[in-house]
């Protein structure tokens, strides 16, 4: 049988035989020979991913809700339409909620990378199935598989690059990750509907604990299956299923161990080798994580020096110096900064309550949101809005000091927003204007 497309000398029957056999290489069934592949192993990886990805999806959608896209300047996905059906007013309490949900989103996503790669390895013969589609139903399944695999790779790759601060995208990360998530979830729903009954039957076909007790000598291929995951001519095993599961599980444990420290303060911060947050930021009270420096966003000493003023706008407009802000009643709270990249840290912040500044602008407490605007000249999130509930919370501050010391320039001197349960990008630094507004319901 020829291993190249037929030329003019080949007849119709030869062409049909060539088409049925498929192109050479990975499209031929005999190419894939691992004795470990089969419905049971694929189902094990698939069930782990199904549970893990459900948590990643829910926490990711909560992260988008925390951005409060309904407020001025906060919508990173203006064309979301019906995809924003679930949005709700993000609460100010508990203060640690975003820290937990976004930390789980990023760390669990990293932990699942070895499982995702193992799952792709287990089904890779299906990606080269030939012919591409034998029926309309199979064509739909194949299309969902392309969207599923492509969506998973896109979401994981862009997410990992983003948490490493490698902004190499020719597009904005936020809308691309948001829309990509919905495409991936739609493909996943179709795939689960088609495959879940088979996966459950496959899991029941073998005893999990028995597989964990089976070494290399007892490893045998699974029985032939109609989906073609089991090799037609399997090679001799060089690893047991127990060994493969241990290898994948160990990889996931390693990913967890090298990333979880970014959500914890203290010595474990230095174990977060997969996150660019484990280093020191200088001695003293300002030694904690920084995403963007003042220099990288075009903030100069002239912007934050003696000439700096804070404009507080509402029915009344008030202009304040930093000395006047320091003369107002100070309040101190321990609050976390939790960023979309998954890192978080809790520090002690001192400043003026946003509710007191709203009163200066002529608004009663608990009735208004606020838009905080930075002096930064470049980059995203130069302004962000908080809802009325967040402004009214007594822990919501225009912070002037941290851990008993003045803010450093990179941490937002002369003033920054700090509020409970707030995404890090909304803790606006180098604030020079606060515009209070009544929310439109």
User: Which strands sit side by side, in order, in the main sheet?
Assistant: 2-1-10-5-6
Number of domains: 2
Q: DSSP helix count?
A: 12
Shape: elongated
> Could you give the order of the helices and strands?
HHHHHHHHHEEHEEHEEHEEEE
**Radius of gyration over C-alpha positions, nearest whole angstrom:** 28 Å
Percent in strands: 5-15%
Nearest-integer average pLDDT: 90
Q: How far apart are the termini? A: 70 Å
| Low-pLDDT ranges | none
Walk me through this protein's architecture.
The chain is α+β, with helices and mostly antiparallel strands. The protein folds into two domains: 32-262, no CATH class; 295-437, Sulfite Oxidase, Chain A, domain 2 (Alpha-Beta Complex). Helix content is 39%, strand content 12%. A five-stranded mixed β-sheet has the order 2-1-10-5-6. Strands 3, 4, 7, 8 and 9 form a five-stranded antiparallel β-sheet that branches. A hairpin with an 8-residue loop joins strand 5 (369-374) and strand 6. It is elongated and about 85 Å long.
């Amino acid at each position: 049988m020829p291993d190249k497309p037929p030329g003019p000398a080949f007849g119709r029957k030869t062409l049909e035989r060539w088409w049925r056999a498929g192109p050479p290489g990975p499209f031929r069934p005999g190419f894939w020979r691992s004795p470990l592949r089969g419905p049971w192993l694929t189902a094990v990886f698939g069930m782990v991913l199904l549970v893990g990805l459900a948590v990643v999806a829910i926490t990711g959608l909560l992260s988008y809700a925390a951005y409060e896209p309904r407020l001025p300047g906060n919508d990173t996905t203006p064309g979301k339409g019906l995809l924003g059906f679930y949005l709700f007013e993000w609460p100010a309490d508990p203060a640690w909620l975003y820290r937990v949900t976004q930390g789980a989103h990023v760390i669990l996503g990293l932990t699942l990378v070895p499982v995702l790669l193992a799952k792709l390895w287990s089904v890779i013969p299906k990606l080269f199935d030939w012919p591409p589609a034998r029926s309309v139903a199979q064509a739909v399944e194949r299309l969902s598989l392309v969207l599923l695999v492509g969506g998973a790779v896109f979401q994981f790759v862009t997410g990992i690059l983003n948490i490493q601060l490698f902004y190499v995208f020719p597009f904005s990360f936020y809308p691309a990750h948001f829309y990509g998530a919905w495409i991936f979830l739609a493909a996943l729903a179709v795939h689960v509907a088609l495959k879940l009954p088979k996966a459950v039957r496959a899991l029941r076909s073998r005893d999990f604990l028995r597989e964990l007790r089976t070494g290399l000598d007892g490893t045998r291929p699974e029985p032939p299956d109609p989906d073609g995951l089991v090799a037609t001519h399997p090679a001799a095993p060089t690893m047991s299923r127990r060994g493969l599961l241990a290898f994948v599980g160990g990889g996931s444990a390693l990913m967890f161990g090298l990333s979880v420290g970014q959500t914890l303060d203290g010595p474990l911060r230095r174990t977060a080798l997969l996150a660019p947050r484990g280093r020191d930021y200088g001695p003293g009270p300002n030694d904690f994580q920084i995403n963007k420096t003042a220099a990288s966003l075009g903030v100069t000493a002239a912007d934050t020096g003696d000439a700096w003023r804070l404009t507080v706008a509402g029915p009344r407009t008030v202009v304040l110096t930093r000395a006047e802000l320091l003369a107002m009643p100070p309040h101190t709270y321990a609050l976390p900064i939790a960023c979309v990249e998954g890192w978080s840290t809790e520090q002690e912040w001192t400043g003026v309550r946003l509710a007191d500044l709203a009163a200066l602008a002529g608004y009663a407490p608990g009735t208004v949101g606020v838009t905080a605007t930075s002096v930064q000249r470049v980059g995203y999130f130069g302004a962000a809005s908080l809802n009325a509930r967040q402004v009214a919370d007594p822990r919501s501050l225009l912070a002037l000091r941290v851990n008993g010391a003045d803010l450093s320039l990179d941490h937002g001197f002369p003033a920054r927003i700090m509020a409970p349960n707030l995404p890090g990008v909304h803790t606006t630094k180098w604030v020079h204007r606060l515009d209070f507004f009544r929310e439109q319901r």
